[in-house]
Amino acid sequence: MVRSLAVALAALSLGSTAFGAESVFFDVRPEATVDQPNVVVADIVRVVARDSALAEQLGSIPVGRCASLAGGCRFDVDSVAGAVEARAAELGARIVWGGTRGVAVSGRPKSVSLASAIDGGAAWLVQAYGQGAPVYVDVIDGAATVSVPSGRLQILAEPARMRRAGAYAEMPVRVLVDGVEVAQPQVRYLIRRMAAAADGKTLPTVDGVANFHAPSANPLVAGGELRSAVTRNQRVRLLIDSGPVRVEAEGVALGDALLGGVVAVRRGSGLAAVTGRAIDQGTVQVVEN
After folding, report:
1. Which phi and psi (to 5°) does residue 78 adopt?
2. Domains along the chain?
C-alpha cells in the first residue's frame, strides 16, 4: 500500500509528458464486487488523477464481462492493459499501473424477497388439503428474504417436494443466480381445517388435517403446478358471510383466480360487484363486516 501511494505520487508529479499526455495512476484492487456483469475500470481500479473529470472518463472504460457473478471471475492486468491504454491515450492520458496484477471479481450481495414463493406454497397447500371444509395455512417459520450475489435471479418454490409431519408441512425454495444454486431455505407451514360447530353458525379453528390429498388426486393441481379455481366469465357459487349469517348466491367471475386468490364477482343485474376469495373450484367466499 505504501509503495502504491509512493508510485502514485511520483506519477502525478510527472504531470503531462513531453507528448502532452497526463500521467494517471491505476491502483489495481486484489478483489472487487460489482452489481452487473459488464465490468469497467472503476470497478477493479482506484484511479488517481489530478483532473477529476479525466478520472471519471477513465473509470468508465470497459474491461470485460463476468460470465457468472455467482461463480465469480478474474481479470488479469496483462490481458486488459492493451485495450485500456489505447482508450486512455485517446483521452490524453498515460497509465501508470500499480497494485496487484489480477483482480478476483464477484457479485455484490443483495437482499431479495421470498414472499411470492412463500405465498405460492401456501396456495398449493390450500389446494392439496382443501377438500370439504375450508383450510387456513399459516407461515410459522422461514426466512422472508435471502442474501444473494448480483446476477440473473431465479426463485423456485418446490411445493411438489413438501414434507408433511402432522399438521405441519415444510417446503424447500431453490434460489439460483446465473443458473447456480446459492441458497435453499425451508419454509414451514401450519395447516388448520375449519370444522362446523353443532349449531352450524360458527367455524371454530381445529388444528390438524385429517386427510392429505396428493397433487395427482386434486383437480386444481397438476404436476406441482397450480390451476385456476375460478376463471373469467365462469358462473360461480358465492358464500357471503356476515357475522354468524351465511348467504349463498350465484354470480359471474370478473377475472381468473387460483385457489386462495382474490377475485371480483358480479352478483346480478343492477347489483354492485363484490370481492371475495376462491376457496374451492367454482366457489368464492365473501366476508362482510
Report:
1. -60, -30
2. 2-107 (2.60.480.10), 109-226 (3.10.129), 227-289 (2.30.30.760)
Residue type, 276: G
Per-residue CA distances from 145 to 105, 131, 151 (Å) = 24, 32, 16
Report the C-alpha gap between 59 and 37 in whole angstroms: 16
Residue 268 near residue 251 (C-beta atoms within 8 A)? yes
Q: From the CA atom positions of the chain, what is the Rg in Å?
A: 30
DSSP-H helix ranges across the chain: 2-14, 41-44, 52-59, 77-90, 115-129
Give pTM, 2 decimals: 0.49
Report angle CA 200, 201, 206 to the nearest 5 degrees.
Answer: 75
Summarised one tens digit per residue, pLDDT across range 40-83 is 999 999 999 999 999 999 999 999 998 877 778 999 999 999 99
The owner of cell 465469480 is 72
The residue type at 199: D
